[in-house]
Amino acid sequence: MPQLFPAHSAPHGTKVAIVGAGAVGSTIAYACQIHGVAHTIALYDIDAAKVRAQVLDLQHGSMFTPTTSILGGDDVGVCADADVVVITAGAKQRPGQSRMELAEANVAMCRALVPRLLEVAPEAILLPVTNPVDVITHAILTISGLPARRVVGSGTVLDSSRLRSLIAERAGVGVPSVRAYIAGEHGDSAVPLWSGAFIGSVPVAGWTVDGTPTFTRTVREDIARTVTNAAYEVIAGKGATNYAVGLAVAYVLDAIIGDQRLILPVSSLVRDFHGIDGVCLSLPRLVGRTGAGAIEPASPSDGELVSLRASAGQIGKVCAELRL
């Protein structure tokens, strides 16, 4: 997963719709505009004044970005015929609140919203960002009845970027030289896949400076805690995370719209992966124009599998409580 993607003009006729014109939704739109992810970006929000203001603000920067049509409104029809619909609407995470505590209210929101979206954009891939994203991904899959490949949660793409950034900083290399993934829940039970983490061609665990191992078990545990707590720290300081998640989701959208067939840790339905079955969580998998594809043929360590099964169990428990 390279760090950067080039700005370009998207193919004519491509459209991304974003539900929710708050901090996250508007930042996703901004990132998509800067990078020319789609020819048309549509914002939908029930707050007519807010969505109009966001659209105007984006339109006023059009001179400085690839050619993109920006539109929006408080009518769901603005999402008509979108290739991908990004869902950011819902109750927001409060300081100290876990993502799972948001589940009931946001699942109820999805029950009302998803059928309306599919009426106007029946061929769209749905990309939930709303937390808890793994539960919401499962809920949308259940509510919509769509094939699993067409419901692609943002998952741990952002978490993996955080992990790579911390590894690169400690190793003294550029972030694109690091290949590492966070898997499982986008939340407290997230699992760093250290067994498949590399700096260049060197396993992270084998990276040394002057013969001294850099990434000891203690260091790896500290990095994992920092990744897991990162959102809480940002939310405590400014009330929401938006810049990094905006870039992360734009990156996923670019992979889908441009059929880039990238390996990304998105949240999607898992079937028979080392005993994990019937739950949506993040694993590195192929992402392209048809949505979420095959899981990367990797073998996590025994300890990682134990943690992944525990993470899947937590997600599954919430889904069962919500009758999903």
From TrEMBL:
PROSITE patterns documented for this protein: L_LDH (PS00064)
Record pathway: Fermentation; pyruvate fermentation to lactate; (S)-lactate from pyruvate: step 1/1
Highest taxon in the source lineage: Bacteria
GO molecular function, one term: L-lactate dehydrogenase (NAD+) activity
Domain (Lactate/malate dehydrogenase N-terminal) ranges: 14-153
Gene3D superfamilies associated with the record: Lactate dehydrogenase/glycoside hydrolase, family 4, C-terminal, NAD(P)-binding Rossmann-like Domain
Presence of the UniProt keyword Cell cycle in the record: no
Catalytic activity annotation: (S)-lactate + NAD(+) = pyruvate + NADH + H(+)
Residue ranges occupied by any Lactate/malate dehydrogenase C-terminal domain in the UniProt entry: 156-297
Keywords of the record: NAD, Oxidoreductase
Enzyme class: oxidoreductase
EC number: 1.1.1.27
InterPro entries: L-lactate/malate_DH, L-lactate_DH, L-lactate_DH_AS, Lactate/malate_DH_C, Lactate/malate_DH_N, Lactate_DH/Glyco_Ohase_4_C, NAD(P)-bd_dom_sf
Family of this protein: Belongs to the LDH/MDH superfamily. LDH family.
Protein name in UniProt: L-lactate dehydrogenase
Biological source species: Amycolatopsis samaneae
